[in-house]
Design a protein that fits this description.
With 309 residues, this protein is of the alpha/beta class. Helix content is 39%, strand content 14%.
Length: 309
């Protein structure tokens, strides 16, 4: 049985400095009302790094934490000290004995909570999100530096018993097919698994079902999104940042966009995936008033097309 979780980005929480973010307590409350068993922490700095405070709100709403999030510039070696501090803070929080935990599923290789690891923060790639032929690529030396920093992040999480999962993300330096293949080549599975995101795969020119199957042996965690084809095509033809496109509605409730979720279900069954799946729908946080409606609609659609939640 697949268990569905949520993420604060469904409420528009991607940048903790955005002045329009909804209160974190409201997000946890609505995640519980949506029927989720768990939610991600969201970007570092959104939820307080205080286990007693956070665990009380989680328990009040009947949810746990499925994953923490590193969403940082992993290329700049000068940023590494800040990144590793965030890893320490997140891992201490999510492994604190006070925090509610999720049950392990049969066949699940690693216990939750995980830590999703994403490279982010480069204008030249942000404006080229979804364009594999336009996006600038790293030199061999730069890629080696990125992998060194990424490995250090994952090894630091492993010290806490937290499973790091590398998340290819539109607009970062780990996005496209060749970059995913290079990460798999350069980061051994004993150090980190993969979190594949159906929406990001589609946005970046890949077939989600094909790539879930291709990397089945590295797959520890899955994100579900859907993509509005009309908005997607519009933003691809503009000079626009990835999250600006999301603010325009590039991501939509599951079942209302272009992705084939019955086909994705079959692939997950074929590969025997029995872990957690987190629904995401990036948006402008000023539209968070419709978040609960949309996440409920996504869950109901998945049930209708055969997902056993």
């Amino acid at each position: 049985m697949i268990q569905i979780c949520g993420a604060p980005c469904c409420w528009g929480v991607d940048d903790p400095k955005n002045p329009y973010l909804p209160p974190w307590r409201r997000v946890l409350e609505e995640a519980g009302l949506a029927g989720y068993s768990a939610i991600e922490l969201g970007p570092y700095g959104y939820l307080p790094i205080d286990a007693e405070t956070v665990s009380a709100e989680l328990r009040k709403n009947g949810i746990a934490i499925v994953a923490g999030t590193i969403f940082h510039d992993l290329l700049d070696p000068g940023n590494q000290e800040n990144v590793l501090k965030a890893v320490d803070d997140i891992c201490r929080l999510i492994t604190d004995p006070a925090m509610p935990t999720l049950p392990a599923h049969q066949g699940q290789k690693f216990p939750t909570p995980y830590m999703t690891v994403m490279d982010w923060g480069h204008d030249e790639r942000d404006y080229a999100a979804g364009h594999p032929n336009r996006a600038p690529r790293l030199s061999a030396g730069e890629w080696s530096g990125l992998m060194k920093n990424l490995r250090a992040v994952c090894e630091r999480a492993n010290r806490y018993g937290v499973r790091p999962v590398i998340h290819p993300h539109a607009g970062g330096y780990i996005e496209f097919e060749d970059e995913i293949a290079a990460v798999v080549r350069d980061i051994p599975y004993e150090i980190a698994g993969l979190c594949l995101d159906t929406g990001h795969l589609y946005y970046s020119g890949m077939d989600p079902a094909e790539f879930l199957n291709k990397y089945a042996d590295r797959l520890d965690y899955v994100h579900f999104k859907d993509v509005s084809e009309a908005v997607y095509q519009e933003v691809l033809n503009e000079h626009i940042r990835f999250f600006e496109g999301c603010g325009r509605g590039a991501m939509c409730p599951i079942g209302t966009g272009s992705l084939d979720y019955p086909g994705i279900r079959k692939v997950l069954e074929d590969i025997g995936y029995s872990g957690y799946i987190t629904i995401e729908q990036e948006r402008d946080p000023r539209n968070a008033g419709t978040s609960l409606r949309d996440v409920k609609a996504s869950v109901e659609y998945l049930k209708r097309v055969g997902y056993k939640l």
